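Long-time lurker, first post. I've been practising inverse folding by hand and with some scripts of my own, and I keep getting stuck on stretches where the structure tokens seem ambiguous. Below is the full token string for one chain I'm working on. Before anyone asks, I'm not after the true native sequence, just a reasonable design that respects the backbone. If someone could post their per-position residues I'd love to compare against what I wrote down in my notebook.
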């Protein structure tokens, strides 16, 4: 018998005896209690572009505004859920796929989920977008020139990548595919962290995600 996830066309042989369990409470009820419209605020950009910095500051701001959030951060996820994955292309794709599925569960729980991952490939970001309903995926392009990222080098990773100590490093020996039509585009070499946060908060207010 055919067995599909309700929002996906992917069929998997091991799903044959697994039935999607409908819960009594739905996303609408959970969101109403939290007084917000849940979504994924998906930060993408080069290492050192400012994804974690802005995502953290945004989460603090949303907390002040009484909103329910959760921040999924690249390094933290790689310490647990994705600790078995490396940095080759297939592992990077799987890394983002799992994060997308986790983010989708958060959205179902009524939470505004912020994610800070390089997520260099257009196709992977498109897959995550397709996992959730229209309007539930907000792509935030943290657009910082690689020269600035290298100069900042907050974790010393560019230095290691340039000396060959780290392989497949985005922007050095692995590509970064910039979003063509992100919902929000921030150039952090010309704006402050606070200005970036304010632009995102304005977007969320204008579009009715938060009040
Ligand atoms: P990423 O998560 O993209 O790898 P991080 O947020 O860890 O990047 O690091 C970005 C670094 O750049 C931090 O040290 C931060 O203080 C610095 N920085 C300087 N100006 C900005 C800005 N306008 N927006 C974001 N980060 C900035």
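-- Answer (accepted) --
I ran through it position by position. Result:
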């Amino acid at each position: 018998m055919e067995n599909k996830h309700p929002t996906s066309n992917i069929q998997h042989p091991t799903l044959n005896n697994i039935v999607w369990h409908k819960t009594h409470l739905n996303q609408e009820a959970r969101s109403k209690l939290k007084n917000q419209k849940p979504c994924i605020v998906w930060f993408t950009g080069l290492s050192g572009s400012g994804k974690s910095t802005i995502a953290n500051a945004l989460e603090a701001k949303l907390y002040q505004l009484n909103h329910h959030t959760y921040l999924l951060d690249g390094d933290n996820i790689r310490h647990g859920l994705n600790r078995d994955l490396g940095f080759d292309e297939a592992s990077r794709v799987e890394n983002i796929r799992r994060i997308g599925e986790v983010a989708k569960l958060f959205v179902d729980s009524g939470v505004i989920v912020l994610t800070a991952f390089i997520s260099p490939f257009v196709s992977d970001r498109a897959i995550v977008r397709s996992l959730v309903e229209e309007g539930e995926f907000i792509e935030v392009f943290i657009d910082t020139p690689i020269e600035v990222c290298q100069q900042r080098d907050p974790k010393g990773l560019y230095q290691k990548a340039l000396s060959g100590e780290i392989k497949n490093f985005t922007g050095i020996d692995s590509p970064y595919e910039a979003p063509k039509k992100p919902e929000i585009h921030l150039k952090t070499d010309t704006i402050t962290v606070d200005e970036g946060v304010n632009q995102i908060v304005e977007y969320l207010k204008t579009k009715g995600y938060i009040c």
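A couple of notes from the structure itself: The first helix runs from residue 27 to 34. Strands lie at 39-44, 69-73, 112-116, 137-142, 184-186. Happy to go over any region you disagree with.
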